[in-house]
Specification:
Peroxisomal Thiolase, Chain A, domain 1, 2 domains, 11-stranded mixed β-sheet, 19% strand, 3-oxoacyl-[acyl-carrier-protein] synthase 2, PKS_Beta-ketoAc_synthase_dom
Length: 400
């Protein structure tokens, strides 16, 4: 392991398929779709969502947790899981050598909704003094640092649906430049509100029948919430405490389309640059890649453009999967959740299926895993994330 290839020593998952790693992996592996009619969205043109089941974790029973926005609660639960798997005790570490990097697109929208309702109904004096600390987009990062006693760099990234992967890349660089020994990376989002759903509906991004990535009949994504966390460590630090790495983050790159605020470049130029640059950063050839965790949003444009990128970069046609058919689109959390799933896929020699894929679009020209999960031993995998604003971020992960 090089200094630029930190070890992944723990992962945590809180998703619509379950509130821990095992239940999430089981749901994704079984191709279980979690989209369901949402009473809170009743009356809107699209009323489907993918919500996290009832969440309970010891970290959320501590004093002050009840005032946290849901996005911060999801983040804390995911990070606590990852730390537990990594065997790290915040009471024992040097917090000045621990960084926190979070990714998210929206901040505490549920807190914002509540504050707006109070302002409209009862006046400014009834807006909670906890409004700002629940709403601001950096508060997931701040709450993680506060709860676990980290005093190293604490940074919040927001690159729309690429945020979670952007956070991974930034954390990798903090370790590579010697600013920390450990980085807690978390992508978290809880943005299932009537306003957000109305907004996504207005631009034609949402499906009213379910997400079907790479399917002939795909018509959009289902909005979702969730969090994914990864513990990254300097290889020497992990070795010194006899930690068992789950995977290595060997490459990362980002690019910007500078084409349109919500539509990807029609030829996928920015996305392709990011994929090729991430492979070059990792020092691997396209043919070395065993599988791809695609962004795969199930929108007409995104899937076709991403498939074109994959055809050009990976002519050997490695297996491709998208978790969004099962979990919905968790927006700014998606990159971290999908990186964690990619770690599990490498460790278990298995590529999960793309849930909802009934009739693969023959024009894609890629090998999308459909039906049952596929046994597949690979050493290296790529995880793609592309976001509104033309943000592209790509991570390359390798078996430990």
């Amino acid at each position: 392991m090089s200094r630029r290839s930190p070890a992944v020593t723990g992962i945590g998952l809180v998703t619509p398929a379950g509130c821990d790693r095992e239940s999430t992996w089981s749901g994704v592996l079984g191709g279980r779709r979690t989209a369901a009619p949402d009473p809170a969205l009743e009356g809107l043109p699209v009323a489907l969502s993918c919500r996290v089941p009832e969440l309970d974790h010891p970290v959320l029973r501590r004093r002050g947790s009840g005032r946290l926005d849901r996005v911060d609660r999801l983040a804390l639960a995911a990070v606590a899981q990852a730390l537990d798997q990594a065997g790290l005790d915040p009471e024992q570490w040097d917090g000045s050598r621990v960084a926190v990097v979070t990714g998210g697109g929206m901040g505490g929208l549920l807190t914002q909704d509540q504050a707006l309702a109070r302002l409209a109904d009862r006046g400014p004096e009834f807006v909670s003094p906890y409004f700002l600390t629940g709403y601001l987009i950096n508060m997931a990062c701040a709450n993680i640092a506060l709860r676990f006693g980290t005093t190293g760099p604490a940074l919040s990234t927001s690159t729309a649906c690429a945020s979670g992967t952007t956070a991974l890349g930034l954390a990798r660089d903090l370790i590579a430049t010697g600013q920390c020994d450990i980085a807690l990376v978390c992508g978290a989002e809880s943005a299932i509100t009537r306003l957000m759903v109305a907004g996504f509906t207005q631009i034609g991004a949402l499906s009213g029948t379910g997400s079907r990535p790479f399917d002939t009949t795909r018509d959009g994504f289902v909005i979702a919430e969730g969090a994914g966390a990864l513990v990254l460590e300097r290889p020497e630090h992990a070795a010194a405490r006899a930690a068992r790495p789950l995977a290595r983050l060997i490459g990362y790159a980002a690019s910007t389309d500078a084409h349109h605020l919500v539509a990807p470049h029609p030829e996928g130029r920015g996305a392709e640059r990011a994929v090729r640059a991430a492979l070059a950063d990792a020092g691997v050839a396209p043919g070395d890649v065993g599988h791809v965790n695609a962004h795969g949003t199930a929108t007409r444009q995104n899937d076709a453009i991403e498939a074109g990128v994959l055809r050009r970069v990976f002519p050997h046609r490695p297996p491709v999967t998208s978790a969004k058919g099962a979990l919905g689109h968790t927006l700014g959390a998606a990159g971290a959740i999908e990186a964690a799933l990619t770690v599990l896929a490498l460790a278990k020699d298995t590529v999960p299926p793309t849930a909802g894929l009934g009739e693969p679009d023959s024009g894609m020209g890629i090998d999308v895993v459909a039906g049952p999960a596929r046994a597949h031993a690979g050493e290296i995998a790529v995880s793609n994330s592309f976001g509104f604003g033309g943000h592209n971020a790509v991570a390359v992960l390798a078996r430990a």
